[in-house]
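**User:**
If convenient, please work through this fold.
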Amino acid sequence: MCTSLRDCTVKKPHDLIAELKPAHPPRLYGSAGCETWSVRFSPDGSYFAWSMGYGFVKLLSWPLTSKDAEAGRSEEKTLNCGQTVWALAFGPSMSTRVDALHQNRCDHELLLAIGLNNGVIQVWVVSTGNLRVTLTGHQAPVRDLVFTPNGSLTLVSASRDKTLRIWDLAKKGASPHVLRGPDYWVFRCSISPDSSVIASVCNLDSKVYLWSLRSYTFMRHLTYDHERTMASCDFSQDGALLAIASYHSTTGWWLDLWDPYTADLLTRVEDCEVCAYRSDNLLTSLSFSPVGLLLAFKDYRALRIWDVERDKLVADTDHNRAGGVCCAFHPDGGVIATGCRDGHVKFWRVPRLVPSLKHLCRIALRFSISTYQVEALPLPKKILEYLTYRDIPKQKIVYCKEHCR
């Protein structure tokens, strides 16, 4: 079954809430140094971190006021990292599924981990803006960072040195666990909501790596049948879906939804088939919303938000040829931030959608049990298909704004 997302009722961009402009704009478009490679909201939504280029990271209180956004001030702290900043991560990161008792036991101060071009990871204290610790070991740029969502101070880093490293920041001086295996640069990593699995993708490796965060061992591959350049990955709110962004010079970009338990490819979303230069449009980032089953993905043409449950494109905005490279949801799901190669950051209002009771039940169930356990339940076929996400269309095409009709 194939569907096309030609829903052109989303012609008017959703409100642009605010915009942050770099202090030192590039002399020429495309000149290196000014890029916003990473944007992040803190787990409680009270802070926003912006890698504003030229080795600086700015911490701002959220929400911004209109004057703060224009002037670039909001009780801000500027962190001078001395190197190009590739990755940001706030921690501890608390999942909505962590029980209240565990949350009360977690009394860690809020930290910001920063991955640098020289392979160093700096960990800063958000409240004071002071450097707490410097982590060394990577031999190449750190491209991604993520804290485990169980409220601990476990940090996972992905690097161009072809390794992932797992750091326990609660244990001072402890050596990291090193995950080896890929033959290419590790670009992105994501951790399942129950903090049991790490997914990672490499730039030229046509497969996804799944690692056990409990035993620090390789689990399995999700394999493509031909060459792809992998760009990003993210788990859904219940961990039952793994979204993978990839592209190829001839076929353009793909967005795939996998079942991480069974390694089944559930659906594929493809770039506009009418565009003559689709190979020039790269899918750079994607992110599941922490609220509902919304999946945001950013390419060089636009930011789009897909309601997977209703199979509907609910936002098509940020039509900026400057080249968006990252996006991140606010914890309450009502705002998404995008960063561009020219150093700008924009904040967009996300449509408020109420998840169905049926979907909330599925999330509660799937967080706790695997696909194999669901399939063993004595339930009607349609219910089993819904619980395992087998009821979504197998293929989609997202038409660009120019070719919607």
Observations:
- The longest strand covers residues 252-259.
